[in-house]
Amino acid sequence: MRRVEVELPLPPRALSPNASNQKRGPHSAKSIAVGCYKELVSLMVRAGVRRGGWWAPGVGVVWVVGGLKRGGFRLDPDMYLPRDADNAVASFKAGFDGMVAGGALLADTWGHMVLGRIESTPLLGPWVRVSVEAVE
């Protein structure tokens, strides 16, 4: 089975559904963070796709692991460390869009993307590791 795996930085705190900066508009902190994170993910995914000779499948199963380790170093205060699974997935929406823009998936709609296992671990990280497997 074809597979591509990419390790990404955690989303910024502004992408949390619980963030206090939920103002709307094209210049809000959230909309700026969405654009920046989507572009960053797109660039990193594009590099991983090129390395592996990957082409976007008709349907891809997406596996997400969030490494939430708080090590001996100081974490960036703008880095988001979700406390529950639904907030983790919601904060990664711009990441899914970046995966499409980077060529790992054709689209993030029901017909093209299936969510596989989503998990987090306090023992590794801080990062988000995303794998896409082609459904042949």
Structure commentary:
With 136 residues, the chain is of the alpha+beta class. The protein has helices at 29-52, 85-91, 93-101, and strands spanning 3-8, 60-67, 113-121, 127-134. It has a four-stranded mixed sheet with strand order 1-4-2-3, covered by helices on one side. Helix 1 packs across helix 3 (93-101). The longest helix has 24 residues, at 29-52. It is globular and about 40 Å long. The relative contact order is 0.31.
Low-confidence sequence ranges: none
Helix content: 25-40%
* Biggest pleated sheet: 4 strands, mixed
Radius of gyration: 15 Å
What is the number of beta strands?
A: 4
Instruction: Please state the average pLDDT score.
Output: 82
What is the helix tally? Answer: 3
- Quaternary class: single chain
Distance between the termini: 8 Å
How much of the sequence lies in strands comes to 15-25%
Q: Quick one: overall form?
A: globular
* Helix/strand class: alpha+beta
The topology string of helices and strands comes to EHEHHEE
Question: What would the keywords be for this entry?
Answer:
136 residues, alpha+beta, four-stranded mixed sheet
Question: Could you give a quick summary of the protein structure above?
Answer:
With 136 residues, the chain is an alpha+beta fold.
List the helices and strands and how they pair.
Layout: E1 3-8, H1 29-52, E2 60-67, H2 85-91, H3 93-101, E3 113-121, E4 127-134
Parallel strand pairs: 2-3
Antiparallel strand pairs: 1-4, 2-4
Helix pairs in contact: 1-3
